[in-house]
Give the backbone structure.
Amino acid sequence: MFFHRQELQFKSTPDQPDAVYARKLQEVLGGQYGEITVAMQYMFQGWNMHTPGKYRDLVFGIASEEIGHVEMLATMIAQLLEKAPLGITGDAVQADPTVAAVIGGTDVQHAIVAGAGARPVDSMGNPWQGGFITASGNLLADFQANANGEMQGRLQAARLYHMTDDKGVRDLLSFLIARDTMHQNMWLAAAAELQEEGAENLPVPSNFPQSKEHGAVSYQYLNFSDGPRAADGRWASEPTPDGKGEFSYHEGPTTSAPMPPPTHPDSRFYGTTELPNVVEKIAGRAQDLLNTE
Amino acid sequence: MFFHRQELQFKSTPDQPDAVYARKLQEVLGGQYGEITVAMQYMFQGWNMHTPGKYRDLVFGIASEEIGHVEMLATMIAQLLEKAPLGITGDAVQADPTVAAVIGGTDVQHAIVAGAGARPVDSMGNPWQGGFITASGNLLADFQANANGEMQGRLQAARLYHMTDDKGVRDLLSFLIARDTMHQNMWLAAAAELQEEGAENLPVPSNFPQSKEHGAVSYQYLNFSDGPRAADGRWASEPTPDGKGEFSYHEGPTTSAPMPPPTHPDSRFYGTTELPNVVEKIAGRAQDLLNTE
Amino acid sequence: MFFHRQELQFKSTPDQPDAVYARKLQEVLGGQYGEITVAMQYMFQGWNMHTPGKYRDLVFGIASEEIGHVEMLATMIAQLLEKAPLGITGDAVQADPTVAAVIGGTDVQHAIVAGAGARPVDSMGNPWQGGFITASGNLLADFQANANGEMQGRLQAARLYHMTDDKGVRDLLSFLIARDTMHQNMWLAAAAELQEEGAENLPVPSNFPQSKEHGAVSYQYLNFSDGPRAADGRWASEPTPDGKGEFSYHEGPTTSAPMPPPTHPDSRFYGTTELPNVVEKIAGRAQDLLNTE
Amino acid sequence: MFFHRQELQFKSTPDQPDAVYARKLQEVLGGQYGEITVAMQYMFQGWNMHTPGKYRDLVFGIASEEIGHVEMLATMIAQLLEKAPLGITGDAVQADPTVAAVIGGTDVQHAIVAGAGARPVDSMGNPWQGGFITASGNLLADFQANANGEMQGRLQAARLYHMTDDKGVRDLLSFLIARDTMHQNMWLAAAAELQEEGAENLPVPSNFPQSKEHGAVSYQYLNFSDGPRAADGRWASEPTPDGKGEFSYHEGPTTSAPMPPPTHPDSRFYGTTELPNVVEKIAGRAQDLLNTE
Amino acid sequence: MFFHRQELQFKSTPDQPDAVYARKLQEVLGGQYGEITVAMQYMFQGWNMHTPGKYRDLVFGIASEEIGHVEMLATMIAQLLEKAPLGITGDAVQADPTVAAVIGGTDVQHAIVAGAGARPVDSMGNPWQGGFITASGNLLADFQANANGEMQGRLQAARLYHMTDDKGVRDLLSFLIARDTMHQNMWLAAAAELQEEGAENLPVPSNFPQSKEHGAVSYQYLNFSDGPRAADGRWASEPTPDGKGEFSYHEGPTTSAPMPPPTHPDSRFYGTTELPNVVEKIAGRAQDLLNTE
Amino acid sequence: MFFHRQELQFKSTPDQPDAVYARKLQEVLGGQYGEITVAMQYMFQGWNMHTPGKYRDLVFGIASEEIGHVEMLATMIAQLLEKAPLGITGDAVQADPTVAAVIGGTDVQHAIVAGAGARPVDSMGNPWQGGFITASGNLLADFQANANGEMQGRLQAARLYHMTDDKGVRDLLSFLIARDTMHQNMWLAAAAELQEEGAENLPVPSNFPQSKEHGAVSYQYLNFSDGPRAADGRWASEPTPDGKGEFSYHEGPTTSAPMPPPTHPDSRFYGTTELPNVVEKIAGRAQDLLNTE
């Protein structure tokens, strides 16, 4: 169960409205790596988790904080929109290019659909979608996804920090960036703990028997581009991070197979087949039809 | 530029057709973490990269291999579909539940739309979409995303391995799983190399000045759920992975702020406002209208 | 069957072109509550309806009018776009910020994709989609959805009215707003008639036996936030609109249950399980593998 | 801020696993009218609200409950999936049509992507999306949307009730259905209260000056289909629900206008124009080209 | 304006219900090339057309017919669903695999969402979307798109014809297939007429001055795969269909250029740059920060 | 297999950055008819093809070239974005409308998400999606789709040509336009060759037995709009392009059928039925309930 307290985790008020910036801020609210994504991702990881205890407590503990971050961003956006102009176009644009420019930079659905309110969309107006989250049941894979989410999120927030000089907005971003610092560290620590405890290991999933994989290519770097410097990385010649092999470097594939012959599905799918077969095809077609009578 | 060779990297032929399994295999072709995703992700990372040399050669080298994996899966799927039944329903279903069951398990667009061919969709028929990829320009963040992609991908391939006993399909999967082993290791090695060389560090992005973040909460675990065992993890009391702090544990938030007062946008957005203000609202409305004459 | 007459229901010509406004007008053409939505919604309600007679005649009668509204908006948009600038950027932007501002405010696909024509998208360029409509087969629920559609639609049209001072555009909007007035009233009247005739009642669906619902909580207001004033509404203490109960007010839930223990699916899904079980897990894994040989 | 308690509002455990039903239950979790939709819808209404007090407390109070309903459904789905078969196809299908049938009825991403866990998608696997919610800033319109959401939701839950005979699942549904009963009544009561207090009225938005709408058609039923019985409804001849007019009935439109002449955008959009103009078009094209040198 | 007549263009009643087939039929109602697509496509082409007269009359004439086809399919689907089972799973599946198989093959939203009615989705449940249509303003391009739409549509209908032996369904399909025959011929005739009249020609758009294209490669077949037989086609050595050139065949590209050097955007985007530049990067970063104080 | 060469097919460097134009150029990279679409479309046609030889070599040969076009556009876009402003809004907008205008015209995700890099989206920011491609297995239909794709693509590139005066960008476009000229001609030639060889014919699919279509309407023009001039086209009275019939012209439908009676699904779907039946409905409902005990 979830309970709401009518308070925010941090002050979220801009010094002044800025409808253009409100649109940009939507990215970290409703974008691929916005707060809705991490909130939902951690919740679904919790609901699907196969183990009670510290890892489940961890994902639930942070999931709830993240809904609160959605809330801080939504209230910030509503305030940034408070003086959103109606945006009369036509002659007005001729008269005042600045007003026109502002209109051009806004999410026009903020005005038309939400009446100057926040929306569950990204900075280009694409709706948030369930396809953004990751909750696989394998904690090592998922904590990797979580660390990535917090890295992309902090990166976007850092970029947004430089796109405004509003003190109030920057204060909120400095808070969110700090929490992203925490959460990056936290998921990396949790991933390390899983491995130390022997619960999961590399490669993920670690208990798929490696005898069943085609081991000859498990640690080969195969270069399918002609850039030669890929051979200089540690992925070309050193022991592998999973501690189970050594990288080797190869120009192009070390295996190959001929393309299989084309398929010939039922002729009633009306696909085009080999020309030499056209006559047989017609005959086959006739036979099919007899059969379907 | 890309060049195609009419050969596959590995043999991709099933022992026998299986239209139900063909649909499942779509997940690792066109799903969130399928081969189209990694191919596109690495290509866009290459095109957007700000540095020549080994990292760019790396992403191009692997990107091209991954398009070849798309190809192997697509040709495998077409072969699995080769004997796809037309799937006559009606009386036939009554007569043969096995046929009916098969129909129920297939992607019916395989038959109706593609004439027994592969499609750029996932195992539930959702089209692949650009929103699945990550290419931020920051290599440490993106290599984390890549490692996650290969982990989720290997996990799904391992699950799919157990969902068939077709030797030909399992051979292909054992090859793809081995390459995922390589690619997981490779991206983790590349992420490590970036940090050793001092090009990037934690937290991402490492050159955003930490003095600008709200440092008080940068290493605090804040527990917003009532599960007590989150305090037992190393994210609650040990040095942080970025080497810059020490985790501390707190029940709930360490900061708070009152919710800001509601906003009052232009009355011509027709939002509902406070009831005591109804009279003024009507007056304001009247004034607005006079202004718009 | 549908027949087209090359006439419009109302004059739809702007006084002057305005490519920025054309983009905004897309919202009521192709947005969540645009005319395509209501046209499609009423048509599908008609095709799925289980009763002949006045209700079916009603939805067909209005559905056809709404396609005509799509037409009026599309022709209006095409005219607003008639002088759409090519929008040369580069030096031109430096030279004339007004031109640049206009470009910024437009739907650039209007120019690039449609050659200055209308498109089936909303004001942020998201394509119209079937997921916007509601046609459940239950008329009381659906007439409620219809009334909502007309309310949101009239609200958006009213906002758009204030975003232009073009007389021709305002004339069209004043016509559409009037029809929305009619349609709001009409669906509310139809919903009332359904209830008077006893065909449907509250709560929807009214013939699901209420004995089968967990009646103890059917009329309880449960407050999961800490705002105390929710207790002041008529939803906290008065007879309920369905005439079958009386509202009561409660702080938080009146029921609760422990979270069920975590699930343990087949180990071949490679989910992470409890740590104490790791040994057993490996053993189980071994057993599974033996079984799959 | 949101706080999580590791308890459920109601017992959510099936008597036995049922992977096919798990997929169906996704509809009320992640569908157009599922619990994610109402949770998000009420939250955004709260964040965008222009008035403090009982209405804001109301939406926050219920929003938080609804996230808890998402949680109950997600944990139920995970349990229904606990014995989800790996679903080996091929020979197995031939051998056991029942197993095959089960596979056909499941969401295969439950197994492949989530490792037997719940997902933020509907019963056909479409991801939940932000485009499902409504939060316009106008409370009368939005409470109408909320009532509709609860009606469609209760209708779907009632249908799902009959699709299983599992006692545990039915218990949960009977609880959710009861809460939907409450929430339908509650939003209708809140909508009524808004009107009694004079905060909002019909038609929505009530303070758009009706003098600005094309009043002649504001209460006319215009029949664009040939079904005559639409004239029998109270929407054809009685006083209107907004108390401001009287319905009248008309066969077809009472207004019309000629279609405006076709538009002629800049010739560099390469649209096809009138044939008699081909010569001029070529000349114009030449002129344009001269201009662009 | 559009007017509806409560009659169908052709009899649309199945001999018996078949919920599995109902789902398949959704493809030609709401799929990429379903009837909604062609109806919408022709309407938007009409509304955006720059010429009055026969071509506009043509697109409007057919657009309206196509909405009627949507209607025939929707009513057919509703009838196919009339006896749709509730689909009780659990023990029932064990008892009767045939029932289970049927459930597996259905669109479960037909039952849960639409109460046994048609929906604006394709056969895998993806919603119809505006991104499916084409209306560019250039009639030759668009008639080509239309011919393609009718070809894909007829192909799918032909496949569907073989997936049922229901006489009523086959009758409807034989009617729709006949109309697709007409419409394929019609659009090809219209495309030919445009060229004969000199209104448009190949290549589209024909009045873009070919002097401005890089003419050296305008008629070269460049082979980027290693299949040698592409040299055997008439696209390798004969006069081109536009009558303006002659095809020539080349192994691989005839032009090439070095990849441009990597870009170096503002350092505040935090992209990773060349390693030798790390020192300068930090210095630059410091300078940026001074500038932003 | 695919191999990458770190070279471009043509020089792709702008004379100067232009972030607004970068966004427009996304259309031909990631839009409905952008280069990703044609690359993917031709690849899937190749993988699904039922015939070896020249047609398969053809689609693979061009598919690979098209990925290289994606690459040229992506590198061009990255360079156009190189000086993308951070876009500080707030006071800055007031001070410099030109800067503001530029911001308004950009894809803000270019900056926030990709750090000044290209993305797999169209010019309005909608992600590329698998639903854009066509690969049906029938080559005549698909080559028609391909010709359409190249026509729409060349049309969009021609429009984009006029939207910039940057010499470098225009050079790239003149190259791409020339390749589109080639590809239009090529697909039309290939379609002609298919017909000459007798592999496929009109109408598509040509081997569906025309005796099974409702031949009476196969060549009738049925006018559902009131524009009389559709009778003037060659589609109204001449021999049909498939050489099998002669067009005839008819005002409206030549066939009709009454609408089928409404359906009556299981009452537990809770649809609304005829009012005279309400009593029976309740009785039926009671019976159902007895049955479900």
